[in-house]
């Protein structure tokens, strides 16, 4: 029974909602997976979404709400009072999801909601988690976990687990702690299950355990889980006491978001947007880089203006302005993308800056000479003007080499000063290379026509 | 004991390897995590890597080899005979990793290696898995899993699991099948552990189970696991019989690779490369798009050539060529990026093409008018030439709107014809918009100066 959202389903549902009759399609909604229900809600209008949300069972609605897109969730939560949010939505949630949801509320409602949570331990867990930045290990972790003490027997373990496991849907690992709550190892369910009845935890547990501190960066956490193929990672405080655990599904979201963000930056989009965001939001995300491009274009005009006399005498120089600008931009984007991606994946290795630039120089020289030879042949054949042909091809090699070195250097420098190197991709590097490329082109043209 | 690879460690290790003395740093290598050892090998020269690989314990070396970058793995496997690969490396591997490794060998060595595998079941599993395309569910799955029959008792379950679980490091879920091997549900280890001794599988298992068919696409599998927050996903054949399972760590790799590939395409890089790949490979990955840019530049020159007379009379039109070209390119990349990302994340929703283009038109109009107003003010103030100012600002709005619509349409069309829409990003869309932008600019200039 695997659901797939179709256009037909959506229009049937919309019709059922508009007639307000209690039709089969609406009453069946509670049989779908929460992630499917969330997908449906994301594709409805605000009114339809609120209406449908009212038909959901309590336990399901809390699972649905954490899967929603943030803007849809905001709309739905607005319609609920603080008491309803605390008692109907949050009560069934894991601490990490609950804290994420509470963090999205405005300050006043936040306090109200927390004060309405009945389970004191859950409330305290949430308040605890709210202290960590969203993108830190603490912000990603949940408090729910199973821990046993090193000197317990297996039957005692199982008894304790029965108590602890009640609220926990998936148990991946059992953590082993000492009497001071310090994390000292793990015990797999498999070993526990296959153990002789008289065994002790200390006979079965695995001493080696990888953990992160609560203040470590989310991207770092993602890198560790990816590198070591971990499904769950324990989080400890400064004294190495176990305080939570991060599961891979939350980290997959971090990985996706990082990749999406870098992609959007490289494409000249400055805020995270989806195609179904509002026109205002999309415009706001796109305008800044267009203004950078505009400014670049004005600088370009100034550069050309410098050489206006030259252009009046040799107007054919204008023909290759777009080519020079485009090639500088393209090469710069290529070079910076390799560096930005290497930094993001932590795969740049230990080459020195000198080695890296040297390699980039060689690649650029090869590509530059190939392109330059082609354009030389073209310009000689079709323009019958060797001065112009020489100017374009010499300028092209220099522009390509410059753009490659510049595209390599800028993200490395930004990274060194803890600025997101993705800023150096896309429109920024293209614009810079446009301007410098024009300087190089007209400078060489000047030498060619006037000096030689 | 969390290892971090540093420059110092690497140079100490390189020195130890060059002196060939059995130093502490080399003998300690077996205490590191296989993923760390792989990272070290990736950063050594081929000779150093081969040398160090020889110091690894057998069980560790097989775990290390699957974590290596492909080019390093290739070098190391070349030095090993088919018998060594079969007996030392593959014997300790899970079926999915073993099949991936065998798939990388050339055909002759592939057969030799398979013939040397002692465990007949493992050999048959590998041969089986080799039939599936690398990026399908079958290509991602492993054969190792725990399955129990619906009518078994719990003690029988545990006895059977003891046998089956021997080779399986992490057990996430126990699959429940009927007498014909058809997948009918799952049983969590937690429930099994907490169950009363006399329970039967049929009392405890969960009937609902999400599965994929072996021929489903890897990206689709990734989407399902991401959407439903799954750690492991069973794979069935056409008759719904359980044939394998896919774990999230392999899917994380698929997600990363997809994102990296789209990013590189958008940056004008046509093959997957790392910054430490060879100069030849990097050049080959970058040259194709540069040639597209070059061709675009030549077309641009042809367009301008059409208007050479006009340019001779109004040379100041040349000033804004880079601006028009750059803005068209930037807007086109923004628009196409939103569509490509929406397609990749399956988040485009159900808006009609008409709605989508209408929205894009509005966003482009706003951005276009803002940019155009700014450039109008600038051109009037500094160039004191209202004809030029009007030409540039009118052309700019039209170019921005055209580029936005074009950037939206092209990836949607490519996707419709099952061509990777990421092709439409980066240099391709930039180049196209450069050329069309020049047409629009000079066309409007022609009307302005000659007709009005």
Structure overview:
The structure is a homodimer of 452-residue chains. Chain A is mainly alpha-helical. The first copy, chain A, has helices spanning 7-19, 24-27, 34-42, 46-53, 58-67, 70-78, 82-90, 95-104, 107-116, 120-130, 137-140, 154-164, 189-194, 201-204, 218-227, 248-266, 279-306, 308-313, 321-344, 353-383, 386-416, 427-451, and strands at 146-149, 174-177, 183-187, 212-213, 232-236, 242-247. Chain A folds into three domains: 7-134, MgtE N-terminal fold; 146-257, Roll (CBS-domain); 279-451, SLC41 divalent cation transporters, integral membrane domain (Tetracycline Repressor, domain 2, Orthogonal Bundle), CATH 1.10.357. In chain A, the strands form two sheets. Chain A has a three-stranded mixed β-sheet. In chain A, a hairpin with a 5-residue loop joins strand 5 (232-236) and strand 6. Chain A is elongated, with a radius of gyration of 30 Å.
